[in-house]
Amino acid sequence: MRDLSQIVVATDLSEHAKWPIVRGATLAGRHGGQLHLMHAIPQFSLKDLSESYRPYGIVLANRPHWVDAARAQMHALATIASERFGIAIEEHAKFGSAVPEIESITRKLPADLLVVGTHGRGFPRDLLLGSTVSALMDRTVCPLLISKTESDDPYRSVLVGIDFSNSCRSALEFASFLAPDAAVAALYAVENDVDSIFHAPKSSYEKDPDALRGAQRELDNFVDEAAAQHPVERIADWGNAAQTLLTHARSSDADLIVVGKHHSNWKGVSFGDISKRVVKDATCDVLIVP
Length: 290
Fold this sequence. Notes:
By secondary structure, the chain is an alpha/beta fold. About 45% of the residues lie in helices and about 20% in strands. The protein contains 9 helices and 10 strands. The chain has helices at about 20-30, 65-85, 100-110, 120-140, 165-180, 195-200, 210-225, 240-250, 270-280, and strands at about 5-10, 35-40, 90-95, 115, 145, 155-160, 185-190, 230-240, 255-260, 285-290. The chain has a 10-stranded mixed β-sheet, with helices on both faces. α4 links the parallel β4 (about 115) and β5. α1 (about 20-30) crosses α2 (about 65-85), α3 (about 100-110) packs across α4 (about 120-140) and α8 runs parallel beside α9 (about 270-280).
């Protein structure tokens, strides 16, 4: 039985910090969950940072004032979200590196969903846009929602990447739970080794209708077993997995792409690499489900 009783939003306090907070608060309100807002305060001296990389857009002479400013800014964000969505928000300011602190709070609660953003400015932007999101995708033990737009609208169109693994069963199930009123589509990309490596366009091998029909039957059987109670569109198409997901997401105006997290797909291609490319290039939110 899926649950969203504990939702963690990790914020970098950047100019776009409200994006993941809005999404997390929206989901907490709709699913009756408790929202936790957390920020990791780096443990280094201000003199180690150049003027352009000092967080929060302020110049301070000493560390205590900087810490107070970070906590005050987080509290301001939490207050705005709490009043807007009518929910209580617990605030957590932790000293330490972002990834270990985020991982610690998600395990301790334990969290049912972790929400982060991919936009920011200066030093915090580098943390969340680069190494932090990448590391969280590898290490998270709960579903990870990467917010790329500011919206409090329910998800309307969800695209789930399928490679017939158990993690994709979980991804399909969680997508239907997270967005019960959305149109959900399951996409399986039929690719050969050349397409995997070079992201090749359609070629002559794709004109074999029997291969595509076989993939479609396999996808239909998989979805019937994994999401029997939910209407799901089934799409089998030729191409590189990441590029095909991105192309279909754009053409269907999807506002959420969902992928499962596991070590490798049946061809030995790292699905983590696929999901990271999707996160990098998608214009909509992306959900990674263990």
